[in-house]
Please model this.
Amino acid sequence: MDQIPRAGLINTWDNGYPSGGNYWSDYTDVDNYSGSYQNETGSDGIWDHPHTIDANNQDRYPLVYPPWSLHDVAITGVRLSKNVVGVGYSVDIDVFAKNEGDYMETFNVSVYYYDTIRTRTVYNLPSGALATLTFTWTTTGVPKGTYTITAKASVVPNETVIIDNTYIDGSVKVTIPGDTNGDWEVNVLDLGMIGVSWLSETGEPKYKPNVDINGDGRINVLDLGILGVHWLEEDR
Model:
C-alpha cells in the first residue's frame, strides 16, 4: 500500500549543515551568509534560502555549485622588470594568478627570494579569471647575490591539485649600484651600456631595464651619477 504524506509534513532533501543538500541547476539565490541558520556573515557555497520543491519536499541547504566541481587556484607566470639591480633599488615583480576551478575563490599570494618579499590577497576571483598582482621588491639591506624568485598561492579549502600553486621564475642579481651587466664590477662596460641607451624611456627600442639604475623609467644623468659614485667598485 502506498504511503501518503501527512498534510503539512515537509520532507527534506539534504544532509544538514555543513554537508548540505543537492545541486539544482534551475535554482539560484544569494550566498552572502553561512551557518546552520544561514545568518552568519560570509558565503559557504550554500544558497541562503531553502529550495522548496513542492508542498511536501524541501532542500534546506541547496548547493551553489555541483558537488563534482573543483577548487583549484594556480600561479601561471612571473614577470620581472629587471634581472640586475643595485642594492637599495627596486625590482617590480608581476605575478599572474588564475582560478582554474569552478568556484569563486579568495586566497593569498606570496613572493619570496629566500625571505618573504610580500603577501597579498586576491578576493573573490571568479572561475576562469586571471589576476595580475605587482609586487615591488626594494633591495635595501639585501646581501649581494643571485636570488631565485618564487611565487606561491595559498591552498584553498578542498583543493586537491596543488602542484600548480607554486611558480619558480628566473633569477635576480643584486649587485653594486651601477653594475648594469651583472659582472660584480662598475667599469667602462657599464658606462658603454648607458651610452647605448642614453635618454631612452620605457617602451622605446633603446631602453634596457637593467641600465635604468634608479628604476624611474628613463636613462639619463641620474643613472650616470649613480654609476659615477660607484665607479671602479667591485665585489667578486
